[in-house]
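Quick one, T. Sequence first:
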Amino acid sequence: MLISFALLIAGLVFLVLAGDYLVRGTVAASLKLGVSQILASVLIVGFGTSAPEMLVALEATMAGTPGLAMGNIVGSNIANVLLVVGAPALMMSLKTTGAGLLRSTLFTIVATIVWLVVTPVYGLTPFIGVAFIFALILYITGSLIRPPTDNLEDLISEEAKEPPPGWVLTAFFILLGVIGLPLGSHLAIRGATGIASEVAWLNDELVGLTLLAIGTSMPEFAAAMAAARRKETDVVFGNVVGSNMFNILGAGGIIAMFGPLDLPGIFVQFDYWFMGGAFALVSLYVLFRRPIGWFLGILLLAAYGVYLYGLHHFYVLGLNWSALWS
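Structure tokens:
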């Protein structure tokens, strides 16, 4: 058990650090080669924070444990909203009027609805995977061709504004990312499957929804807390929206390519309600241009506590909704 847990922690640490180094190296190389800073920013916000989820999804599916991958996607999206938005909101009010936020939120709403409606009926099939990946490419291409604002500085991440390092350091960053990401995902999957096999009441889905989900959401959480400390609160929710979009369309599209895969029925009975409800709640603040304050932050964090209790109720005890109040 201790070895499996150590492998999981080591894998998550590798994923977080390697994802950061890969993004820094890729952005530096793109700027040196004359690629637009907008494209560099898309790489940071989109691929960078979601790379752990994508690699874990691919590794878990290829290892024959798709339940881990599905649980990681659903659990990570729930953690992104309830934890990554809730915790910074306790520090200061989060703006919901950032450049392009409304467009990306609407697109992620559609992606979330499609996931919640289509996957219970058809599961994850190669056709759905192709459609997801095509939709993600279409969104990225459209954002680059038609930026949502004339003030392009609003779309450029802080990393893209900084002078890039030399070629040697850039290559070293990329090498660390390329080696560290697959190594981290491999260690994390080995540790997660080991824990699931050694603990009788744990299954792949529950491990994915909790340990892997929280671990792979750490890049988003760290970025959100850092942005809140720098008072760049307009990018906090933007990072969450972008990450959820990449998780559904990118990581979901990847594992669907290995389908057909059927989702566990408990997802629809319990987890999907939190996944859809949490994102719908915070999306209302974006649609009505209302800041996310401390009260909603407390509510989101409390909701995550309720969600964890529900996981124990449904997955560990095997009870249903009526047993909650009977």
